Every structure is written in C-alpha cells, then in structure tokens.
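Hey all, quick one. A colleague (J.T.) asked me to put the flavin-adenine dinucleotide job into the tracker so the inputs and the structure tokens live in one place instead of scattered across chat threads. No bug as far as I know, just bookkeeping. Sequence used:
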Amino acid sequence: MTTWIDVCSIDDLQPNSGVCALVDNQQVAIFYMPEDDAIFAIDNYDPFGDVHVLSRGLIGDMAGRPMVSSPLYKQHFDLQTGQCFEDETVKIPVYGVQIIAGRVEVTVDGAAQ
Amino acid sequence: MSNKQTLVVIGNGMVGQYFLTALMASDHKARYDVVTFCEEPLPAYDRVHLSEYFAGKSASDLSLVEDGFFDNNAITIHLDDKAVAIDRVNKTVSSEKGVLINYDKLVLATGSKAFVPPIPGHDRENCIPYRTVADLDDMLAAAKEAKVGAVVGGGLLGLEAAKALQDLDLATHVVQFGPRLMSAQLDDGGASMLRQKIEALGVSVHTNKNTIKIVDGETCAHKMVFADGTELEADMVLYSAGIRPRDELASVSGLTIADRGGITIDNHCLTSDNSIYAIGECASWNDQTFGLVAPGYAMARTALDHLMGGNDSFTGADMSTKLKLNGVDVASIGDPHATTAGALVYTYQNGVDGVYKRIVVSQDNQYLLGAVLVGDASGYPTLMQYYLNGIDLPEHPDSLILPSRSDESVGLGPDALPASAQICSCYDVSKGDICSAIDSGCTTLGALKSETQAATGCGGCAALLKSVLDCELEKAGIEVNTDICEHFPYTRQDLYNLIMVEEIKTFSELIHKHGLGKGCEICKQAVGSILASYWNEYVLKDEHLSLQDTNDTFLANMQKDGTYSVVPRMTGGEVSPDMLIVLGQVAKKYGLYTKVTGGQRVDLFGARVDQLPKIWKELIDAGFESGHAYGKSLRTVKSCVGSTWCRFGVDDSVGLAVELENRYKGLRAPHKIKFAVSGCTRECAEAQSKDIGVIAVEGGWNLYVCGNGGMKPRHGDLFATNLDKATLIQYIDRILTFYIRTADRLQRTSVWMENMEGGLDYLKSVIIEDKLSLAQQLEDQMQHVVDSYQCEWKTTIEDDSKLKRFRTFVNSDKHDDNIIFVEERGQVRPASKEERAHLKLVETA
Ligand code: SRM
Ligand SMILES: Cc1cc2nc3c(=O)[nH]c(=O)nc-3n(C[C@H](O)[C@H](O)[C@H](O)COP(=O)(O)OP(=O)(O)OC[C@H]3O[C@@H](n4cnc5c(N)ncnc54)[C@H](O)[C@@H]3O)c2cc1C
Ligand code: SF4
Ligand code: FES
C-alpha cells in the first residue's frame, strides 16, 4: 500500500521552480510547471556536490525531457527518472507526487531503499 | 649529478626570449640545463612597440615573458648582468658580476645598439640613443625640462623616435643625413609624399644635414652644428640613425666577424665555432644583418632545429615592412628601388589625398618584385602575397594600385593562395597551418590565434587571417552554429534585439513567440539577464524568478555545502567604523565566517537559506545594501586612497569610485563587471586589470577599458586621456551599454574586445566619434537603469510573498542536518565529508 503524505498547499510551490519538503526525514525536491500541469519529486541530494540542494536548481527541458540543473556544478537530471544526463552511472531517487484538492502529497515508499 | 648538458643564451632580448620559449615548448627541453644572461635590468620586452611607452604602456605591458616563465621552466636568468668573456677552449662564460659557468652549447643573441655618431659633444647630457626602456626613462626625465627635441636619423626608427618626442610635447625636428626620409625603403616619390605628411603633423624635417658637433646652445641646452654651416638648437637629442650589431663579445672571443659588422653565421646559424650559434640582430648571414624581428625569429627556429639534430636552413629574410608613423601608413615590399634587371615600374600619385603607390614588376609583367605605399597601405597584404608566393599578376598590374575600377576585382582572394603561403611572418604560420587548425575545430578568430599564434605578434596579418578563416569556413560549408541553445535558434545578440524591438518583457512571451520547449539554464539566465539589463525590473518578480541562476534567486552565492555568502556593498572600499561594527555584530550573531575579499569588501559565509532574510534585514536597517556579488552585474569599484590622504594623489580616487559604483550598481550585464580608480599613475588600485579602469592624471582622468584578471589576464587598453568627469561618465555609459547589447553570454569585456572586428579603434569610433549614431540611445538606456535602481534585498525583505521561498523546507522548521561546521583559526568552516560522518556518529551515539 502506498502511503501518501500531505506536504503543503499548491500555493506553497514555486511556479517553474522548486521547493524542498522533509518527508519521513528524507529531503524531497518538488518542482512545479503549472503551464503543463506537471509536478515532479526527486531526492534533494546532489551526489556530485554531496549536499542537499537540487530543489534550488533551475528547471527546463533537455532534448524534450524535463530536467533540473544542479545549482552547484550544473549537471542535469531527468525529473521523471532521476537519470543524470552527463553520467549514465548516476541516477537519483524519484518519488511519487500528486496534487489532490489543492494539496500536494508525496510518497517515499519504494524509492527509499 | 645531472647528465644534462648546459645551454647558455647570452642576451635576453626579443630573439633570445623567442628562442627560450620555443625551446621550452619543444620535446627536447629536458636535454638541457638552461642559463641566460640579460644585461638589461628587465627581462625581454617588446622593443617593436617601444614607443607605446609614451602613449601609456608600462614596462610590464611590454614584457614578452610570461609570469613565472623562468621559474616554471627551471631556467637560471642572470638579470642585470653582462657576459664579458667566452673562453672557447675551456667552454666557459664569465660575467661582469663574477658568474662563471661551463657551457656545452652557447647561443649569442646580443642584438644591436643604436649607432651614435662619434662626433664631439655626442655624449652631452640628454643626448640619448633610442633603443631600450632605460633610454626611454632617460627621455622622460629629460622631457621635464626640455622644450625642443631633435632626432638624428630620418629612417624608420628615427621617425618613430620623432613620434615619441611629440608624445612628450616637445617641438620636434628630424635631422636626416641623406636627401630623403626612409631612404632604405622608399623611392624619391614616396619619400617626398611622406615628408609632406610628416611636416603636416608639425615635425620639422631637415635633409642633407651632416651633424659635425654638438655644443652649448643659446636658446636651448644644445646646438647641433652641421657640415653646411647651418645650426639647430635642441634641449634633447635622440640618436636613431641606424644600428650596429653587438658583436664585441664575439669579437674578443675570436669568433669570425663579418666585414660590415655582425657575427658571421652559416645556414644553420652556427658561428665559426660549432658549439656557438648567433641569432637575431647580432648575426650576419651572407654579409647581411637584419634589423627586423621576424628574421631573428626565423634564425631562432633554425638554430633550435639544428641543436635538436635537424637540418633546417636559414635562407635570408624578407625585409618588407608596413608601419604607421604618426598615423601615416607607410609600406615597402621587396625591391622598392627597382634594382632588378629589366624591372618595370608603375606609379600612382594622388596629391589631394596624399597617396603615393608604386609597384615594381618583372620584365615580362608577370611577377611582383617590389612596392612602395605611402598614405594608404591597405593593399599591403595582397601585394605581399603576390610578392612572396610568386603569384601571376593580373592582366593590368597597375589595377593593384589604381583606385578600383568597377569592372575589375582587385583584391586577391585568400582562396588563390597556395597552402605554403606564409600568412603570419612573426610566427611563421602558413595558410596550410591555418587550414589544418580550422579543420581540427578552431572556427573562431580567437581559437585560431591561440592555436597557431598567428596575428599575436605585430598583428599585421590579422585581416588576412580573418579572410582565410572566413573563406575556409564558407568552402567547408561550415555554418558556425551560433544558436544560444536548443530552445532558441538565435544568438544572444539576436535575442537582445528581439526583446528590444518587440518590447518583450517576459521569458514566456519570448519562448512562445520565438523559441521551442521550456528553456534551460543557458537561455533562461541569458534572457533573465537581458530583461534585467533592458527593463531593469525587480529580478525576483514572479515572471522572472525562475529565470535566475541559484545565486540570483536567493540573492546570495551558494557555497560548496549549500549555505550562502552575504556580501553587502561597500562603495569604493570605503566603510565607516560604525558600519564595520554592525557587520561584525551580525556576523557574530549568526556565526558567520568573515573574510575581506579581493574586491575591497567583506564577505560573510555560512548563512543558511532561512537565515538570509534575517541577516539582510539587520544589515539594511543599519544602512547597508546588496553588493550584487551573486549577479552578472557590477561588482566593485576598487579604489586607492587618492589625493585625500596620499601624498602623491593627483585626484580624489575614492570619491570618483564611490560615485561610479553608485551609478552602475545593480546593472545586469552578460558577465560581471569590475572597475577601479587610482589616484595617480602608481596605480595602487590596479585599474588596468579591470573592465573599466580610471587613473587620475594632471589633465583629468585616463580611461582604460576591457582589462581582466581571472583566468586569462589582460591589461586594459588606454581608451581616452585627460577626460573631465562628465565626459568620462558619458563614455562609460556608452561603452557599458554597447557591451551589454553586443556581447555574447558570459563574455567578459576583455574577450568581447578581443573578438571585436576592428578592435579598439572600432570601439573608439562608436563611442567617441559616434559612428553608428547610437550614442544618445546608449546613454538614455543607461540612464533608465540608473533611475530605476533598487536594492533587491530591500524589496525582498519587505515582501512576505517573496520571503516564503527562503525556507529550508516547505513543511517543517527543521534545518538541513547535513550542514555542519567545525572551527578553524577561531572561525567556522564547512566540515569535510569525513568530519561530517564522524560528527554524525558522535551525535547518534
Ligand atoms: C569572494 C571572492 C574571493 C575572496 O575571498 O577574495 C571571490 C569569490 C568567487 N569568485 Fe572571484 N572572487 C573574488 C574576487 C575576484 C577577483 C579580484 C577582484 O575582483 O579584484 C577576480 C579577478 C578579477 C577579474 O574578475 O577580472 C576574480 C575572478 C573570478 C573568476 C574569473 C573571471 C574571469 O574573467 O576569468 C570567476 C569565475 C567566473 O566568473 O566565471 C570567479 C568566481 C567566483 C565565485 C563566484 C565562484 C563561485 O561560483 O562560487 C566565488 C564566489 C563568491 C562568493 O561566494 O561570495 N572569480 N574574483 C572575491 C569577491 C570580491 C567581491 O568583493 O565581490
Ligand atoms: C624603437 C624601435 C622600433 C622597432 N620597430 C620594429 C618594427 O616595427 N618591426 C620590426 O620587425 N622590428 C622593429 N625593431 C627592431 C627589433 O626590435 C629588433 O629586431 C629586435 O629587438 C631584435 O632582437 P634581438 O634579440 O636580436 O636584440 P635585442 O632585442 O636588442 O636584444 C639583445 C639583448 O641582449 C643584451 N646583451 C647584449 N650583449 C650582452 C651581453 N654581453 N651579456 C648579456 N646581455 C647582452 C642587450 O642588452 C639586449 O637586451 C624596432 C626597434 C626599435 C628600437
Ligand atoms: S595610486 Fe597614487 S594616490 Fe593612489 S595610493 Fe597609490 S600613490 Fe597614492
Ligand atoms: S605577421 Fe606579425 S603577427 Fe602575424
């Protein structure tokens, strides 16, 4: 069973940018693209810089894939799969996220291991 | 014991240094321990551009030695020490200061000295040869008192010396022994045109004057007495009447000396002793010495090749020259005097525009043998290619010098050149070399220059280099992709123009109209920057917020551990004790690491994102404002203490720095911009290393532009002198706006300048002469930015909706537990990965 955890209101999100939520002691970066009605959740941890900062990266797309670029050293990560564009051996966890009645819910089940 | 051999180079002038640099770049450098003797107190400098010393260049600008060159290459240099004897039997060199060294191979690069006529009174005070930086310093000293200057010698160097005298504000005379100026290079027609032009510039020319003695003057310090009984009075006398090879050391060491002077060398540049080479102006090949730098460089390459076991030959050198004398273009190619048997001559003379051109062609009208150009030397590169490569002349050779007839194309397309054609003679770069560099990916002028060194010497070949590049790119069908990224098929400049012309105010409007997809960090930041430069709206406005790089969105620079730095503005580096105390208190309260930056202000490190607004509120309440350390925008205007306190200060550098910083603060640009203002030419603020540098001089302010520290340092170019403050600010307004409009993304002003077609002269024509009629627009745009300035931090802390973003977590007040500090030298620093792991263990235990 998936546990959805209520995180915040949709108004707390930053349009076309990210915020960070603390879910079960995991730092989760949540990105919101209102024009496409798209929302993504990935781990906030940047494996290249060894710090928790991805929610503060700039988002957009690369070769048609939604991506975030790390604020530290500018690697790009696919927001849907967590795959790093520059290094195929690096993939960061992605989490479930949904908007229900104006509330944002995240699940970290399954991805945590 | 090292089994290396010892190589000694005597003379660290232009050619000696070229030899050392080439040796160090070769695969064989490990074979030798290298020692060099340099008689002058300065290591090698650019003698060719010596006269620019009077137009604002310093000795270090002229240096040919990269920082750390001798140390990094383990070369021992004996500076200010002259080699006085060579013992060829025991193979030693000894010096004036007592150094005695064994050599295996020896290279003589002792150059020349200016010829000083041995007449009575030649060594009176302020009678100075024109050859070294020390000579120039003597001239500067003499110029303090002197009103009238005379140059002995009306050749190439003499005329350059005359320019130097004019730069020193002296009434200037040129005294020429023979009947015409530049007799080695010019024919009578060319020389008389040159004379007219030089005289029009205020230089008095005296020909057929043989100076027989110099005695006390009546109106000036000296009186020159000529063989024909006439006299000329002057306070300073410069000798520039030719050069004499420095062969004295070689001569006392028993090496063969040529009849007309110079150390005799063979085709490999070996002297009569096969352990000793001679290169540069001191050497005589085929009874000929060469007073130009390119043949010296060719000798250096030949000697190096031979030393490494190669078999290259020096085969003489072309003495063609092109130069600008006091703004007059003069060029001479090959055999200007038509001494070749059967040679035919074509001449074109235009008295109205002061243009004289002459070509010398072979008897069959097929090949170019020589040329003289005065007043318009634009045809030089084309003529040189005909001459050097033996290219067949067009049907009417005179079309090469006549004003172009509409039905005939005159220029020689670069395509017509063979691969062996030498494009750059300073660095011996052929068209073939350039083509292979282009093939391997150098598709910009900048890349080509750094790959091949072409056009990095005298610069005379730059236009030709560019046309070869353009032609090759076109041929290869390479369309250089200048799109900014996959989202816009445009350059930054295109985007700028679209935004300006269509009055676009947001990124989403721009990408919907002109782009594809959602954008990325490249186009978003570039557009964010353009919008900010042009409209200057609050950068965290909803529409703009997502465009900014991390640093701009949080108005602070992210550090390696995810914390931020806080840099308040301290205009001109000035700070009151009270403000300093506030800064200290805030730093203490929030536990911030505190450091004085390289930009004359104080940086506070280690602020968590949620602390930033609180810290800034306290700072702003105390009167600080944002320092924009996070933006691609004006950073600091560094200053020296200036005339307010300094005993040498000529003007109030701090006051001007504060004013400039306040004017341009917040200005967004393609890259960061740094200024500095020095109170006098001692230059304590290092203004010449800044994008905009200002130095106080007696007549006002001197403006330097496009300097850079950082990865590839560049000295600023002297842009204008003796400006009053209003003009200074007007120029800076125009330059900066023009930079913002036309530079590429992340291009500092230095690189912008280097890639600008026409370079400094072009920039001057746009900014000073207003060639594009843009000046008013540029000023207006800057005034808009100045008038709409706001402190972004102040706006942010006053807007609750913006503060929301400065939370670590949207759903919790906890902090990022990965941010861990340890103490060092009494302050905090981020813990290393190991320290973090250890501290976490301790915590959970
Ligand atoms: C703090 C400071 C070092 C210090 O402790 O002294 C510094 C720190 C940084 N410099 Fe710098 N530079 C600092 C003075 C300089 C100077 C000296 C100066 O300004 O007089 C230079 C050379 C001068 C010049 O720029 O021409 C300098 C040349 C650079 C460069 C190379 C730029 C270039 O054109 O080659 C970079 C990289 C870049 O901008 O792409 C850089 C980039 C950086 C960055 C932004 C790197 C980064 O992305 O983290 C550093 C972050 C600053 C921060 O977190 O606040 N920094 N940096 C100095 C801040 C000055 C200030 O008060 O604003
Ligand atoms: C004002 C001026 C303008 C010029 N313009 C041009 C131009 O436009 N184009 C061009 O091609 N050329 C030009 N030249 C000529 C060019 O500068 C020379 O061709 C070039 O410098 C020659 O290099 P070199 O190394 O042979 O001699 P130098 O550069 O003179 O170097 C020789 C060095 O050896 C040192 N030395 C001599 N004897 C000893 C010793 N016993 N021990 C230790 N050190 C010793 C000297 O002090 C000197 O530093 C110009 C020269 C001058 C002065
Ligand atoms: S640059 Fe000049 S005025 Fe400024 S501190 Fe140095 S010596 Fe003094
Ligand atoms: S010819 Fe002098 S730089 Fe190329």
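Adding what we noticed when we looked at it: The radius of gyration of chain B is 31 Å. Chain B touches chain A at residues 486-487, 508, 517-521, 523-525, 542, 545-551, 553-554, 558, 560-562, 609, 804-805, 807-812, 814, 816, 818, 833 (CB under 8 Å).
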